[in-house]
């Protein structure tokens, strides 16, 4: 299989830029052999590699990453490690599905926490909870519905009105929000770097080493620009890039989304929003609204806009457009902070499936995958990657039944039908949520 597209974001990941020191991994040069080859060093690939290495300490695992480890999509995200599903549904089957999904998210989160604590990974891990926010009364129904769903799940939450949100977030922009207390906020570049740096010694990571040709008949072989890996088994943790490979049967496609970090607020600017603690908020409509954070070092993060990106490339001109969009949006949310400068705007890939279920499991002889993050992957892909390793090694874990229960990615039409469908859907969602920005 020839790889036709690789992810490219022509912009600077702000989270990585804030870090003083990031370990650089060598590129692969020459031939190497391994028991396992993992392609992709995001949350899924790293969780998978770690678990295989723990369970098979005498086996050798090679991880190939096309980019720098601290610069891939997992390192470019908004830093929410979520503990709860966004939707539950109303039937008992949907409730069971939501319960299974919650167990999986919480498993991913608790393993991330365990690794962060054990290895003292400095990633600004903060248990600050999350505000699920609506701007206009048009979404009152969705806020009420979300409360109902949390009640059904037996989760603790608070409903906040505009005045209470003004106190906590320093803005009157939001009409209402549901606050849940157990979401974690991190610097994702620091977390992903820390996860890679603390892998067991039987894992070798090569960065800037895209697999350009992958053969899965007999011995697994992957060629990079200057090297080749031969392995017994393969895990494809390539998420947004998965559509290009026939093994994924076209059941997944790539979109990109954009984030901006501001400069830190000065003491004078901070006085204009009040003495507020770091927080994170997600919009009622993740595709068409904005995610926001206020960080411990007094910056704001804005994540907004999702684009169909079949070629996996986001250029500098497009990034520039979104930088201006985010600046205008920020000025509407914080009219008192007109003089806050934007520091970095960047993009990153996510992968989407039609029914929200992943491409997870064995996808061919000796080939496994966890792809189709559907926009959130820190806790989810950490759980899916770890459980996939256990599944591949025939280990017992009661959560494997939950993995089976969440279903499989369903059929998507081929391009250009897919393009028309996705663009039409996005246009509808943006129109439906136009009052939220
Ligand atoms: C701006 C933004 C904000 C987000 N916010 C959040 C959030 O707050 N919380 C959350 O949970 N999720 C968030 N997400 C989604 C989250 O980042 C993804 O779900 C997560 O990164 C998926 O992890 P993964 O390991 O499956 O895939 P990725 O992180 O995409 O990893 C796949 C890796 O495969 C590599 N690769 C692809 N092809 C090849 C090849 N041929 N050879 C070698 N390597 C290859 C890629 O370079 C990439 O590093 C956000 C995403 C973006 C872009």
Automatic annotation (TrEMBL):
Residues 35-390 form the FAD dependent oxidoreductase domain. Pfam families: DAO (PF01266). Transmembrane segments: none annotated. The keyword Phosphoprotein does not apply. The keyword Oxidoreductase applies. Gene3D superfamilies: D-Amino Acid Oxidase, subunit A, domain 2 (3.30.9.10), FAD/NAD(P)-binding domain (3.50.50.60). Keywords: Oxidoreductase. This is FAD-binding oxidoreductase. It comes from Rahnella victoriana.
């Amino acid at each position: 299989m020839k790889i036709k597209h690789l992810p490219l974001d022509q912009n600077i990941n702000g989270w990585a830029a804030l870090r003083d020191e990031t370990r650089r991994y060598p590129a692969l040069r020459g031939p190497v052999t391994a028991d396992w080859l993992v392609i992709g060093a995001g949350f899924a690939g790293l969780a998978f590699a770690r678990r295989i290495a723990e369970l098979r300490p005498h086996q050798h695992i090679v991880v190939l990453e096309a980019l720098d480890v601290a610069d891939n999509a997992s390192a470019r995200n908004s830093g929410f490690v979520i503990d709860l599903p966004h939707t539950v549904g109303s039937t008992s089957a949907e409730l069971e599905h939501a319960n299974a999904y919650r167990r999986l998210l919480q498993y991913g989160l608790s393993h991330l926490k365990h690794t962060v604590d054990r290895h003292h990974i400095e990633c600004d891990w903060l248990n600050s909870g999350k505000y699920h926010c609506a701007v206009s009364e048009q979404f009152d129904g969705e806020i009420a519905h979300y409360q109902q769903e949390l009640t059904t799940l037996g989760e603790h939450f608070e409903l906040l009105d505009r005045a209470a949100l003004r106190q906590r977030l320093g803005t009157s922009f939001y009409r209402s929000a549901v606050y849940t207390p157990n979401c974690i906020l991190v610097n994702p570049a620091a977390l992903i770097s820390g996860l890679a740096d603390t892998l067991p010694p039987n894992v070798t990571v090569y960065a800037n080493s895209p697999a350009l040709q992958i053969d899965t008949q007999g011995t697994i072989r992957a060629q990079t620009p200057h090297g080749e890996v031969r392995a017994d088994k393969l895990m494809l943790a390539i998420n947004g890039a998965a559509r290009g490979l026939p093994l994924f049967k076209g059941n997944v496609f790539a979109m990109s989304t954009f984030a901006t970090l501001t400069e830190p607020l000065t003491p004078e600017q901070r006085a204009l929003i009040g003495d507020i603690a770091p927080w994170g908020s997600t919009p009622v409509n993740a595709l068409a609204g904005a995610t926001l954070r206020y960080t411990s070092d007094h910056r704001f993060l804005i994540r907004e806009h999702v684009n169909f990106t079949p070629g996996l490339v986001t250029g500098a001109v497009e990034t520039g457009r979104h930088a201006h969009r985010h600046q205008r949006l920020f000025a509407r949310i914080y009219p008192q902070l007109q003089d806050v400068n934007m520091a970095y705007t960047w993009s990153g890939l996510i992968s989407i499936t039609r029914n929200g279920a992943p491409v997870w499991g064995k996808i061919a002889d000796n080939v496994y995958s966890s792809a189709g993050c559907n926009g959130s992957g820190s806790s989810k892909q950490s759980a899916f990657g770890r459980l996939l390793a256990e599944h591949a090694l025939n280990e017992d874990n009661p959560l494997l039944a939950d993995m089976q229960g969440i279903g499989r990615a369903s059929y998507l039409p081929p391009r250009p039908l897919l393009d028309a469908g996705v663009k039409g859907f996005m246009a509808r969602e943006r129109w439906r949520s136009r009052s939220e920005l």
